[in-house]
């Protein structure tokens, strides 16, 4: 299964880059994530609880980062084992491009596959589910990096301050 | 006036009373003291090296009795294959090891890696989740042609490649067939796929192993079509248990359709583990598990060519088939695309030259083996589709083209090694034209078109080789077993009878039909006769139920044993009547002296046999019990003509079967109602294959259609009311009942009729579609019509 999409994030590429490498940000963004530990060098260990059609499972997985070209692109690869539910594995190539207005265009290409009961019982819904998971993740990620969208017409510099503050808050 | 008892009558099935009132006794209904439960941890990868299995944490969990892995089976035999094929080079097929639990490698999704035996199923399942398995994933081979390419990943590292065998038949005809095709006035070519199916019997597989330390005896209850075969294979080849120390019982079994013929790892496991744990061990398959552990059916990819001369006579047929074996060789897998397929390619026609080449291929998928029809549906589909395509290309009537090429003289030796003893293909076609109201089709098409629907008409013939099988013949062909059958007729003192038969009944109605035969022969009421089957400790021997063989082979053994009973009873009667043996006649349960009014009743004779106060003890033994083994002289050759009418919605591609008619020649018939039911069920499965069912793998070897959400079983509203006729009868010439077998006909004869009708409907709508692969789902039909 292949998916590709993009998000425009209202933050500079350096901040987006930092967020991707941050376990706490990732935990907040991965739908159903109950645990996330690790770092960009050693990879992250994650626990995710999800229901795919009739299959509910706790996935324990490991995510590694590679091909890192700060702050432009990297590759995420991961595999999650869901016990009797089977497994899911995949990779994502993420590219960050600075936009004209100082924001970041995040583009991703995801390749994923599932096995075991997930494939057997959920094959018809896996594609849609994966798309939904990816959408949710990047929407969450956009929100996490940009900070809560309040006072849409606030001055730009104030927004910048707010973002930084929020990121620092969760990193500390 | 139809008969109301004996052969030819249709008494209601006596076994249905218990099946319909919930008093059947299926394997899962059997629970024994101290029973444990096993849960199999199965691979969720299609192919991989097992690096490590850590069971320590799981073994410490609540309720766990013992955890087994492949290492526990290293001194144990593997699951055997019952048929050796010799390839085109005269070499034996490549035969890989098939361990009970995976050793070193997993080769398909569902391959068992470990087995947890625990006090409850929940505890077994929970512990299985805690087993840490480290598998290094390998690329999976799924597509058969890709699997044969140089450098393809090997399913079995110790084999040269993924080719189980390349088989040619008749190899001596190969050049002549090529030549005939080259010189033909017309050649019709068709590439097609016979879709992979999952049998889905109503009752999933179950096994309960027990071990009695007191007498070192193992007992296996299992959902099998042939308990003696399981005893032989498991005892002799896997576990090394001699027959007298092993009992295999297949009690009530809820459908088999072939997939319960085979000896499965779970049966061997439960028997082995019961001894190892000294506790009974039960396994009950879930429906999900059945999809990835029951042998699948079909899965052939074929190119077929039919050569015709300028007068439309068939001159040669060439068939190239790739047959999927899956990851391991199941019990009869190797015989299905070869002897059960190649020998049927003459079909109903006088084609003088036939050659088939079959490449059997290992892939990282569930093993494939016989499924209702086994090789014969594949052959029939190929021939009847290419004949239909030829008729369209030549612009001739498909029925007329078939009639022109029918075999009309019997016995007929085909160019593919079999000899049809009897048949009358024009008679079944005549009958079909009547019951299908073929003359009325045009009017029905006009009605459909008024509604904006397309209507299609498809017809086909079939021939099958049943009554499997003459042992000396199949032995020459590579079978590692004889295929006779056996029956014991035990007459009790007061005249009632228990008949122990080797044929197993799992939906076929033997308990009703078999007594009809014995009752007819003796002239007593059927209620006096019971059938005993499915228990190796009660039945003398048996090769089981498959290949539409029960009545033709086991029924013949029962007839032979009953004849022995009658001969002996006549001697007893002669003694009681003070007459010569040769003067005694048996009619309506009375023995009488010919030409006199002296007679003695059946019950008096049987009583004399067991209370031999006035008895010819110097000449014959007391008691009245006889056993006969019967090995058939030939296969039987049921045949028929089928017709399907479909309506096709051009907006959506949805095909509805509006009418289905079947005219069969099954030889003599014991119970017409049961025969009709068998045909109905077979057609239902054939329509399922043609329009609905498909076991789909993705390129990684994941089975995508592994539940009823994605695997479309036919439902009541997918099938019409059938018109079924079996009056065009040419009795079999070589068995005592003149019967041919009816169990598989519907599944063999129906898929080509359905697809021929779908093609006809599309062409009537102006769509130039010459073939569509099964299942002809709405999306496929719609896509085909869009070109």
TrEMBL record, chain A:
CDD domains the UniProt entry points to: CoxG (cd05018)
Coiled-coil portions: none
Comp. bias regions, Acidic residues: 148-158
Chain positions covered by the region annotation Disordered: 148-172
One Pfam family recorded for the sequence: COXG
Protein name, per record: Carbon monoxide dehydrogenase subunit G (CoxG)
UniProtKB/TrEMBL annotation, chain B:
Domain Aldehyde oxidase/xanthine dehydrogenase a/b hammerhead: 21-139
Entry keyword tRNA processing: no
Single GO molecular function: iron ion binding
UniProt cross-references to Pfam families, sorted A to Z: Ald_Xan_dh_C, MoCoBD_1, MoCoBD_2
Gene3D superfamilies attached to this UniProt entry: Aldehyde oxidase/xanthine dehydrogenase, a/b hammerhead, Aldehyde oxidase/xanthine dehydrogenase, molybdopterin binding domain
Uppermost EC category: oxidoreductase
EC nos: 1.2.7.4
Keywords of the record: Molybdenum, Oxidoreductase
Name of this protein: Carbon monoxide dehydrogenase large chain
């Amino acid at each position: 299964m292949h998916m590709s999409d993009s998000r425009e994030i209202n933050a500079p590429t350096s901040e987006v880059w930092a967020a991707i490498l941050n376990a706490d940000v990732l935990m907040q963004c991965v739908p159903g994530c109950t645990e996330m530990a690790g770092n960009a060098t050693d990879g992250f260990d994650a626990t995710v609880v999800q229901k795919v059609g009739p299959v509910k499972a706790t996935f324990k997985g490991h995510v590694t980062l590679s091909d890192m070209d700060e702050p432009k692109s990297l590759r995420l690869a991961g595999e999650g084992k869901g016990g009797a539910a089977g497994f899911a594995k995949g990779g994502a190539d993420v590219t960050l491009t600075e936009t004209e207005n100082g924001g970041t265009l995040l583009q991703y290409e995801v390749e994923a596959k599932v096995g075991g009961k997930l494939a057997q019982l959920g094959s018809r819904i896996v594609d849609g589910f994966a798309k939904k998971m990816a959408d949710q993740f990047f929407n969450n990620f956009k929100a996490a990096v940009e900070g809560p969208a309040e006072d849409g017409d606030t001055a730009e510099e104030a927004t910048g301050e707010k973002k930084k503050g929020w990121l620092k808050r969760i990193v500390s | 006036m139809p008969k109301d008892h004996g052969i030819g009558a249709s008494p209601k099935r006596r076994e249905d009373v218990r099946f319909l009132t919930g008093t059947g006794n299926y394997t899962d209904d059997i629970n024994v003291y101290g029973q444990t439960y096993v849960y199999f941890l199965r691979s969720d990868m299609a192919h991989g090296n097992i690096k490590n299995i850590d069971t320590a944490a799981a073994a410490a969990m609540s309720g766990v009795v013992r955890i087994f892995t492949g290492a526990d089976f290293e001194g144990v035999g593997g699951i055997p294959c019952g048929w050796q094929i010799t390839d085109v080079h005269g070499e034996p097929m490549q035969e890989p090891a098939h361990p009970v639990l995976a050793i070193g490698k997993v080769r398909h999704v569902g391959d068992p890696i470990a087995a947890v035996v625990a006090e409850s199923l929940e505890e077994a399942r929970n512990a299985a989740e805690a087993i840490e398995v480290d598998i290094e994933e390998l690329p999976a081979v799924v597509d058969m042609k890709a699997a044969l390419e140089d450098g393809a990943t090997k399913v079995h590292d110790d084999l040269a490649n993924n080719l189980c065998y390349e088989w040619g038949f008749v190899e001596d005809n190969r050049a002549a067939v090529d030549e005939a095709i080259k010189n033909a006035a017309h050649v019709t070519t068709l590439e097609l796929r016979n879709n992979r199916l999952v049998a889905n019997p109503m009752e999933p597989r179950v096994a309960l192993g027990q071990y009695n330390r007191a007498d070192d005896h193992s007992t296996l209850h299992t959902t099998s079509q042939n308990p003696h075969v399981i005893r032989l294979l498991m005892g002799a080849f896997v576990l090394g248990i001699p027959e007298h120390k092993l009992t295999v019982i297949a009690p009530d079994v809820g459908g088999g359709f072939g997939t319960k013929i085979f000896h499965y790892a779970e049966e061997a496991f439960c028997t082995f583990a019961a001894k190892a744990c000294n506790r009974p061990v039960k396994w009950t398959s879930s429906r999900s598990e059945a999809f990835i552990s029951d042998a699948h059916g079909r899965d052939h990819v074929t190119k077929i060519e039919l050569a015709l001369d300028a007068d439309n006579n068939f001159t040669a047929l060439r068939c190239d088939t790739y047959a999927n074996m899956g990851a391991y060789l199941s019990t009869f897998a190797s015989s299905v695309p070869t002897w059960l397929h190649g020998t049927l390619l003459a079909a109903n026609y006088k084609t003088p030259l036939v050659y088939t080449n079959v490449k059997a291929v290992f892939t990282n998928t569930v093993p494939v083996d016989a499924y209702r029809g086994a090789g014969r549906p594949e052959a029939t589909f190929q021939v009847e589709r290419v004949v239909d395509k030829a008729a369209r290309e030549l612009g001739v009537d498909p029925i007329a083209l078939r009639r022109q090429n029918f075999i009309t003289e019997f016995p007929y030796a085909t160019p593919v090694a079999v000899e049809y003893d009897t048949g009358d293909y024009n008679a079944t076609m005549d009958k079909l034209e009547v019951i299908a109201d073929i003359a009325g089709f045009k009017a029905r098409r006009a009605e459909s078109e008024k509604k904006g629907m397309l209507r299609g008409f498809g017809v086909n013939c079939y021939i099958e080789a049943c009554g499997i099988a003459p042992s000396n013949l199949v032995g020459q062909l590579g079978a590692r077993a004889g295929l006779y059958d056996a029956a014991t007729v035990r007459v009790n003192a007061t005249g009632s009878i228990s008949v122990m038969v080797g044929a197993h009944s799992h939906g076929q109605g033997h308990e009703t039909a078999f007594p009809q035969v014995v009752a007819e022969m003796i002239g007593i009421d059927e209620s006096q006769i019971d059938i005993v089957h499915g228990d190796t400790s009660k039945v003398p021997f048996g090769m089981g139920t498959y290949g539409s063989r029960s009545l033709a082979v086991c029924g013949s053994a029962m007839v032979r044993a009953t004849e022995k009973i009658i001969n002996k009873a006549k001697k007893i009667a002669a003694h009681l009547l003070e007459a010569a043996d040769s003067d005694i006649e048996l009619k309506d349960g009375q023995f009488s002296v010919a030409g006199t009014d002296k007679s003695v009743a059946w019950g008096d004779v049987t009583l004399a046999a067991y209370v031999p106060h006035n008895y010819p003890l110097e000449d014959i033994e007391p008691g009245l019990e006889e056993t006969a083994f019967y090995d058939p002289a030939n296969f039987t050759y049921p045949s028929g003509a089928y017709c399907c009418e479909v309506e096709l919605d051009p907006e959506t591609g949805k095909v509805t079967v509006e009418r289905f008619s079947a005219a069969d020649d099954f030889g003599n018939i014991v119970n017409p109602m049961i025969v009709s039911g068998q045909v109905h069920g077979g057609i239902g499965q054939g329509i399922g294959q043609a329009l609905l069912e498909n076991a789909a793998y993705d390129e990684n070897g994941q089975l995508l259609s592994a539940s009823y959400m994605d695997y479309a079983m036919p439902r009541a509203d997918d099938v019409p009311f059938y018109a079924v006729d079996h009056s065009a009868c040419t009795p079999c010439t070589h068995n005592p009942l003149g019967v041919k077998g009816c169990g598989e006909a519907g599944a063999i004869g129906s898929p080509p009729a359905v697809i021929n009708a779908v093609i006809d409907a599309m062409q009537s709508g102006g769509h130039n579609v010459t073939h569509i692969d099964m299942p002809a789902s709405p999306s496929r039909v719609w896509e085909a019509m869009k070109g």
